[in-house]
Amino acid sequence: MTALAALRDALVGRPRNAVLVGGCGLAYAALYLWMIGDLGPGGGGGLAARFPAWDRVWQARGPFHFEPVGLIEAGPWVWTFSPLNTLLGLGIGLLLGGNLVLGWRVRRAAIHCAWHPPGGSLLAALPALLAGGACCAPIVLIWLGLPLAGVLSPLLPWLLPLAVLLLLASLATLARRLAASTP
Amino acid sequence: MSRWRCPTLLVFVAWLLLSPTAALAALPTEETPRVPLAYSLQEFREAVRAGGPGKDGIPSIDRPRFHSAAEARLAPDDLVIGLYLGGEARAYPQRILVWHEIVNDTVDGRPVSITYCPLTGSALGFHRGDAELGVSGRLVNSNLVMYDRTTGSEVPQMLGVAIDGPLAGRGLEELRLVWTTWDAWKTRHPDTRVLSRETGHVRNYRHDPYGSYAPLRGYYRPQSARLFPVMTESRRLPPKASVLGFRTIQGAAAVTREALRREAVIELAVGDSHYTVISDADLATGWVFHNPRRVEIRVDDLTFGPAGVSGGGTEALGPIHAFEAMWFAWAAFYPDTLLYGAAEDVP
């Protein structure tokens, strides 16, 4: 079995796995948007949406961080909606979900075949989490009360691409191992 | 033929010489800054750090809209930055400025920039001439580094002196702003106009990403840690304690909020000269005057109006620009500052 076939079979061949990857993508996207400040408290309790700034859809606020085009209020939450930020969050979330599902499948195969599975797929998501947390709303650092923003700021432009590369590399490794362990 | 070459050459040389001057004239500056420089421009430049967002990643408001006080969606204890200029009063809600940091406005026909740095809790106004100020995305002592969009010169907000670019070494012309509550500002200025949330950008103006001032939470708590390194550290007050500071070429001085609440008039000797700080209890701020002859202030005769304080002996005194800031940042820019009202000074 090729690595690509093993990857396809693991992620979309079984509905339960596809739901898990999708759920992980959505959960991570929500966390990412909250950490970069697009999602936050302040809603008036009702449901409202307006999109007054579609002309800013491609306008960057920083590295891999884009201007919102609309404001969505849902209950106590306010979402300043940027399609590109949302796609970025979803993309990393799906990669992370894929890593989790593949890691689980490889682990199950390892139990049968008695070899050690690779780790680190969760560690690969760390740069992405930092990129979200240390961007223009450094809430994580404020919570931690650490003067780290000065150290992290020069790294910010590299964190998101680094996270994507690490997650892709981890996914490829896991797919190869799964293919090797599948007859 | 050669008779024409000479004047053409002269005109060309004159154009070369004058064109930078024309560009420099856009942002009004003073050749000799009126503030003490504790470090060289080179040292300030070396202390500049990336703050996270890129140039204009925090977008200034360049076409501000205003509405009446009655239309303002503000709570009484919401913080505003107030400006009174040429008979016009304007309130810039902190909740909006925390997302934009600079408003390029025109008040009474005069172009001005209202600037606010959330990391140092400082609000300063500047005359801007034909230029616009923008957010560079860089910080010195955690303080906003603004840039002049005409020349590209960079100016740390609390210094008010360009440290880089064609205007390096020149001081900006400052304007007094008042950091107070909406209720206090509206009472003093019932006809005030208020900056609208229709800024041209989409932001969650009900939420402050750094914390909250009422009640004090997150980054704004007096004891909480700063995020970026500073050039000089002082532990005489909690890092985020708010002080009213002023500086002249003779030196710098800061007065604690507690001292302003406690004392109606504070006399200070800075360098070889004498200054008087008059507490404005309603706005929870102070007005600073150069008082070299040590004129005695008659507290009962003081009048607090839209333009500040008057009467009581202040007529003959020269007003000095002052602004509120977090202590750690004030001490970092002005390490030799006089501090009045620290707990160790209270009898």
Automatic annotation (TrEMBL), chain A:
Keywords assigned: Membrane, Transmembrane, Transmembrane helix
Presence of the UniProt keyword Membrane in the record: yes
Residues that span the membrane, as ranges: 18-37, 77-102, 122-146, 158-175
Domain of life according to the entry: Bacteria
Name of the protein described by the UniProt record: Uncharacterized protein
UniProtKB/TrEMBL annotation, chain B:
Keywords, in A-Z order: Signal
Protein name: DUF3179 domain-containing protein
Database matches in Pfam families: DUF3179
Signal peptide from the UniProt entry: 1-25
Keyword Signal found: yes
InterPro entries xrefs: DUF3179
